Amino acid sequence: MRARQSNKSTRETTMTTYTRLALAPLALTLSMAAAQAVADDGHTGPTFGGQIVGGVLDVDDRDKDLWAFRAEAGVGGIYHVNDALRIRYDLIGDFANAINTVDEQTWTPGAHRQDDGEVYIRTARVLLLTDFGSFGFQPRVPSGFWHQIYNNVDTFEYNRFHAQTGQNAIFGQAEQGSDVLSYGSPRFGGGFQLIGAVLTTNAQNGQDFDIYSGRLVYDQGPLNFGIGHTQVRRPGIDNLHRTSIGIGYDFGMVQLGGVYEHNDDREDSSGASDFDAWGVNVSANLSDDWSVSVGYAENDKNLGLENDAVVGTVRYHFNEDVYAFVEAARYDNTDNNLAGGISVSF
């Protein structure tokens, strides 16, 4: 988004469809829905929206490739049952995996789960919104843990650092979740919220829940921060504890952010899952039309898998829904890349 629209313009520009359509439980209503009255049956919606980010990806030692960095579309709405209960639904498909040809040097949303050429259902969920908090039943959903704690360093188009970015993954936290049962408290203390979730990543291992996660977040005015803890108990990783801390501050023209992650594999401290990672980011609105982001992240993985990255992107904003970008990334132990393209939201 452009600088004149809000103090959080650069960070909001980089929001994907899941943050606009599928993540903030009380913010479903996009501009179309905000303008329409609640129907006689108490239904607001369905609202349709999406984002297409297409361009060219150039990875070292690989041919240049036309690439869909994002290709999402979906619907959402809210049923107003009564003053104390609203039921929200979201269904969003991600077509990037069906468009791109992924190999060991690249990644695309959905490739961690779907075979090459298959459409990935990014969001499929129902939320019960009550005076006592929100209750989520979410077979597929973008990770709220990632979005609320790591969002200040997740400002790039291709080089996003999370655990599902293939060879270039810096952090252990995934960006996409499945089989998520969650609870979010009402906001308290001027901007605090508690969220807890359990996930089933393997339905055949004799235990109903494989991941337990909780976080405390704050987002009010120019300051946002979060601290969270995740425990993973599943075949291959039986007792992994991950603690994450993220913070960001918006100075208006400039936004600063950072995150620290500690992965404690209590079963095998010498394995690849036991490591620390951290990242910092500076974003700036240079004018109404131009914005930039620069980030650095690193980890100290065992077994020679350590890595660090420097990433920068420049965006030219035609309007609040359309921008062009150029992005470059240098990695210490994996392939560097250069990307460029156009983003259109609708």
From TrEMBL:
It is found in: Cell outer membrane. This is Porin domain-containing protein. One of its GO terms (molecular function) is porin activity. The keyword Transport applies. PANTHER family: MAJOR OUTER MEMBRANE PROTEIN P.IA (PTHR34501:SF9), PROTEIN YDDL-RELATED (PTHR34501). GO terms for cellular component: cell outer membrane; pore complex. Its main location: membrane. Homotrimer. Residues 1-39 form the signal peptide. Keywords: Cell outer membrane, Ion transport, Membrane, Porin, Signal, Transmembrane, Transmembrane beta strand, Transport. It is a multi-pass membrane protein. InterPro entries: Gram-neg_bact_OMP (IPR050298), Gram_neg_porin_domain (IPR033900), Porin_dom_sf (IPR023614). GO terms for biological process: monoatomic ion transport. Residues 27-336 form the Porin domain.
